[in-house]
Amino acid sequence: MANDNYVQIIGNLTRDPELRYTTGGVAVCSFGIAWTPRRRNANGEWEDGETSFFNCSAWRDLGENIAASVAKGNRVVVTGSVRSRDWEDRDGNKRTSIEIDVDECSPSLRWAQATIERTERSGGGGGGGYSGGGGNTNAPANRAPDPVYGDEEPF
After folding, report:
1. DSSP the chain
2. Which of 76, 78, 105, 116 has the fewest beta carbons closer than 10 A?
């Protein structure tokens, strides 16, 4: 695998996906997932471990499909890469957040069913889900810039 910091997390969405657009019209979907490990204790009973929370970002067609397909509480399988992002809060304090750049996202079918609806691709990308080519042609051109990502390109 070409990407050395590949991660796969199975967890529940902590909030509804939020779909926004950069000033260039590129879709970005933000959502959070939580994962709680379960283990058997010495008495053979199941115990929940400490829950971990992850912020996720998905770009372009993938982001739009996620926003249209899953909702808070859904169990999903997310793969991608981990990155840290530095930012400044309202009081001027420097903060760092760890996020997952999502390559793939799907509903977990362990305890649910899903119906698949194929979508048309807006770009000329091949394989792997990246549509390539500078943005979604369906995105409104006059949207306000995304407050977190601005006009930043994802890669």
Report:
1. ---TTEEEEEEEESS--EEEE-TT--EEEEEEEEE--EEE-TTS-EEE---EEEEEEEEHHHHHHHHHH--TT-EEEEEEEEEEEEEE-TTS-EEEEEEEEEEEEEE--SS----------SS---SSS---SSS-TTS-TTPPPBTTTBT----
2. 116
pLDDT per residue of the chain (155 residues) written in tens, 0 to 9: 555 899 999 999 999 999 999 999 999 999 999 999 999 999 999 999 999 999 999 999 999 999 999 999 999 999 999 999 898 999 999 998 889 999 999 999 998 999 888 888 765 444 444 433 334 444 454 555 566 666 665 54
